[in-house]
Fold:
Amino acid sequence: MTGADPRALVTALSDWARGTDWVDWVEIGGSLGRGAGDELSDVDAGIGVHALADHPDRIDEARDAIAEFAPVAATLTQPMGDATHLVCVYEDGRQLSLVVFDEDVRTGLPPQAVATVDKSGRLSRELGQTRWDADEATVREWTFLAWIAVGDAARHSLRDHPWRALKALTDARDHLWQLWAHAHDLPFPMFGAVTVENAAVDLPPGIEATHPNDLSPKAIHTALTALSRLLCPYTEGELTNLAATVQRRLDLLDR
Structure:
């Protein structure tokens, strides 16, 4: 525990935005946005900038501003399509993840977020979670990729590449978490386990068995078998043929 309050970063960011004429709004998401934050919470925030495409220097100005909130350990700038993600880690352990958008990207406030600055009223109405729900094509893609990753894990284990096998197994489980979140109508199902744990809903039954006790082929096989069982309820249509094909490769680990 550092004793440093991440809410102080929210206050600093909001005060800066109010005094900066080219910033239109500030939204806070994550645990603080849900009202579940504590001193270990990161600050997940977004700001809307006037005519960002015409003023790319605003990115540097925003990065310089947040670096003044507290002594800085390190920063990172990540392009995100038309937006930019600024990550600032302070020496006291707090972290601010700030996405800089053009102001027009928002027509309302996303679920599980709060607006701390809203000069033009863009965030005055709440947006429903449906725009972030997964459609049928996305659910099929998650299921497809999960089975492919199960097959990859089996292949890597058979070739005595245990760490690659574990990576593929983890990828498959990540897609299962997404499917579980979607099936429970949770907001932002693409975030998988994060969404499920934040919602405090029941976990997939037997999910613990999908974590291998070690990296031996036997342990990987046991975990993949448990994961395959959990994937079955989401596997239909032609994907049943994919599952059967992957299962034949998985069976090789049991010899």
User: Anything to note?
Assistant: The mean pLDDT is 94. Strands lie at 23-29, 43-49, 72-80, 83-90, 95-102, 114-118. The two ends are 49 Å apart (CA to CA).
